[in-house]
């Protein structure tokens, strides 16, 4: 795998471990630029399958793993289009991000999200495609989409349902509240909670452990225990696009994009 | 620790001490009725960080929506006290 240093992402391969670093200021918002680089990463990841056994995704920004989709960009672009064009654009964006998420989810490598700080919305969904989530104790998880009149659109609901009890899924979605890492581990979302600033180091140690196992066996185990809910993922895109035409969405996006509140992330 | 029974004043004092230490503000500069956004000079992400630190310190869960409209230490202490 060739080393890559982009504007939003960087990646490289060392000792059989692919590391994908997120570093788009202010907090790894996932917009078109990040999507383009994620698509390049998905291609590179597929090619690296024979030379790697693990993937670690982490953020090199202090604020956290990722604040989710770039809502300000989404609002700006949707304002420049009529409604039909905007929905078409959103659908295209979702199809593209789903292809990337599905590729990482289905990767034969064992994948680890090493998270800290804000792990919200689309950032949370990126962590959810990974096989393991290792969380710094200051990590915070949230799906605030309902405050915008939307549901998570990057595959979050089907993947949450795959991993967690439905009552926790409802709590996260319907209240929009955030969980800390301790709670996330209690409900089965996070596999390890570590001290502040230690998630990447622990993820690297875990990746080192994984290389002791036979790759074919690890791949067979992963395929068996982590089915990808393709049908529900398709349905999620449909629901998102239906909701996107509602006036509540434009109002919600405008409120967020123009907010000067001290707590715009709090639903 | 959760099994320690705290009075409201103790809870308030612990919040002020924690906030002062973490955000490097002199403890004597913080008063119970201060607007903590202004006094601590914190943004939305730091507010979440404060929430997480308070949850860890008091070993509680404090849903974000309980903090909507809360901007002073005294009311914050009341919200926390209700979950101890």
Helix count from the secondary structure assignment of chain A: 11
Report the largest inter-chain contact. A-B, 24 and 20 residues
Strand and helix order of chain B:
HHHH
In angstroms, what separates the terminal alpha carbons of chain A?
41 Å
According to DSSP, the number of beta strands of chain B is: 0
Q: pLDDT under 50 segments of chain A (min length 5)?
A: none
Secondary structure category of chain A:
alpha/beta
As a percent range, the share of strand residues of chain A is: 15-25%
End-to-end Cα distance of chain B: 10 Å
Per DSSP, the total helix count of chain B is 4
Q: Could you describe the largest sheet of chain A, including whether it forms a barrel?
A: 7 strands, mixed
What strand order characterises the main sheet of chain A? 1-2-3-4-6-8-11
- What's the gyration radius of chain A in Å? 18 Å
As a percent range, the share of helical residues of chain B equals 40-55%
């Amino acid at each position: 795998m060739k080393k890559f240093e982009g504007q939003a992402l960087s990646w490289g391969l060392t000792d059989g471990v692919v590391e994908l670093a997120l570093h788009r200021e202010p907090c790894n918002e996932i917009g078109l630029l990040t999507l383009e680089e994620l698509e390049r990463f998905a291609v590179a990841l597929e090619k690296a399958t024979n030379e790697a056994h693990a993937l670690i995704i982490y953020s090199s920004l202090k604020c956290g793993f990722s604040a989710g989709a770039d809502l300000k960009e989404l609002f700006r672009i949707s304002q420049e289009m009529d409604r039909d064009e905007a929905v078409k654009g959103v659908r295209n964006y979702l199809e593209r991000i789903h292809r990337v998420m599905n590729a990482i989810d289905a990767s034969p490598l064992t994948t680890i999200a090493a998270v800290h700080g804000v792990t919200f919305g689309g950032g949370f969904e990126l962590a959810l495609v990974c096989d393991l989530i290792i969380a710094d104790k200051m990590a915070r998880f949230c799906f605030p989409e309902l405050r915008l009149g939307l549901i998570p659109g990057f595959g979050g609901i089907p993947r949450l349902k795959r991993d967690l009890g439905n009552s926790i899924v409802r709590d996260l979605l319907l209240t929009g509240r955030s969980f800390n890492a301790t709670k996330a581990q209690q409900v089965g979302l996070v596999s390890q909670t570590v001290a502040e600033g230690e998630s990447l180091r622990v993820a690297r140690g875990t990746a080192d452990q994984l290389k002791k196992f036979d790759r074919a066996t690890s791949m067979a185990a992963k395929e068996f225990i982590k089915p990808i809910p393709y049908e529900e993922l398709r349905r999620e895109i449909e629901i998102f696009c239906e909701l996107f035409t509602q006036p509540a969405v434009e109002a919600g996006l405008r409120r967020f994009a123009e907010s000067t509140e001290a707590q715009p992330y709090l639903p | 620790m959760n099994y320690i029974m705290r009075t409201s004043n103790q809870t308030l004092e612990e919040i002020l001490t924690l906030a002062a230490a973490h955000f490097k503000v002199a403890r004597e500069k913080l008063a119970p009725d201060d607007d903590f956004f202004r006094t601590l000079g914190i943004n939305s992400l730091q507010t979440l960080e404060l929430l997480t630190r308070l949850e860890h310190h008091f070993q509680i869960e404090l849903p974000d929506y309980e903090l909507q409209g809360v901007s002073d230490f005294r009311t914050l202490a009341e919200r926390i006290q209700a979950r101890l």
